[in-house]
Amino acid sequence: MTAAAPARITGRTALLTAAASGIGEATAHRLAAEGARVVVTDADAEGAHRVAEEIRAGGGQARDHRLDVTSPDEWAAAVEETASWTGHLDVLHLNAGRNLPGAAHELDDASWHGQLRLALDSVFFGVRATVPLLTAARGAVVITSSVHAAIGFKGFPAYAAAKGGISALVRQLAVEYGGRIRFNAVVPGAVDTALWAHVSPEYRAETIARTPAGRLGTPEDIAAAVALLASDDASFITGHNLLVDGGRSISSHE
Ligand SMILES: NC(=O)c1ccc[n+]([C@@H]2O[C@H](COP(=O)([O-])OP(=O)(O)OC[C@H]3O[C@@H](n4cnc5c(N)ncnc54)[C@H](O)[C@@H]3O)[C@@H](O)[C@H]2O)c1
């Protein structure tokens, strides 16, 4: 993959959140392979360090930083560290989110607020902390949404609200900062990451059957879409929610 990736992001600095695993990890590798200097962040500091080490071992440029995206103070520290490393920030991948099951009548306040804080408030914190640097660089922001923003799945109201909020926010931000910063979202379907480790074989098979592509997505599938939206190949794309779901959300499920 490294050899085949185009070098569209050479010389640019990219900060990624929740990048110690899954989609974020694959995206860190992809952006580095495309020439970016990447700041790998995660609440799991050891995991972020491991990913940055792997990128450096492969010849890429990477730093790591602990960043719990729900903490505005940690955002300030990560942005300061990034600016002191390269002096600019060109690409921001906002990737944190988690789906905890529970129908609306079963959810307690903590679960509702926790899921919204992790997936949606964190986008606000991240954008607020980076607008000056991104404006100076005429940068690009890519947010990881989910097909839960587009179709209903029983038992995930907070996750749907958070990801649906991202769909609207990405349009709002694209208008607000038009001409200075591009904002887009990738909208993954089922992607084979740690999130899927505890899913039953039956549900996995059912999901594949409902996906026209005939398989789950890989983290690299999503990373490729993030890299496209982050690059100048997408210079006229802003405010867009890009489905990367193997057709899951447009299938009649027959
Ligand atoms: N896997 C899927 O099927 C799928 C589908 C659609 C959307 N998504 C979205 O993709 C994103 C990444 O999911 P994944 O499947 O790669 O997950 P993953 O479980 O592989 O990785 C999640 C990462 O988030 C980090 N994290 C957790 N809390 C954090 C916090 N407060 N601050 C910073 N980092 C934190 C974890 O340490 C971990 O490294 C999420 O937003 C998820 O909602 C995933």
Automatic annotation (TrEMBL):
<dbReference type="Pfam" id="PF13561">
    <property type="entry name" value="adh_short_C2"/>
</dbReference>
<comment type="similarity">
    <text>Belongs to the short-chain dehydrogenases/reductases (SDR) family.</text>
</comment>
<dbReference type="GO" id="GO:0016491">
    <property type="term" value="F:oxidoreductase activity"/>
</dbReference>
<dbReference type="InterPro" id="IPR051122">
    <property type="entry name" value="SDR_DHRS6-like"/>
</dbReference>
<dbReference type="InterPro" id="IPR020904">
    <property type="entry name" value="Sc_DH/Rdtase_CS"/>
</dbReference>
<keyword id="KW-0560">Oxidoreductase</keyword>
<dbReference type="InterPro" id="IPR002347">
    <property type="entry name" value="SDR_fam"/>
</dbReference>
<dbReference type="InterPro" id="IPR036291">
    <property type="entry name" value="NAD(P)-bd_dom_sf"/>
</dbReference>
<protein>
    <submittedName>
        <fullName>SDR family oxidoreductase</fullName>
    </submittedName>
</protein>
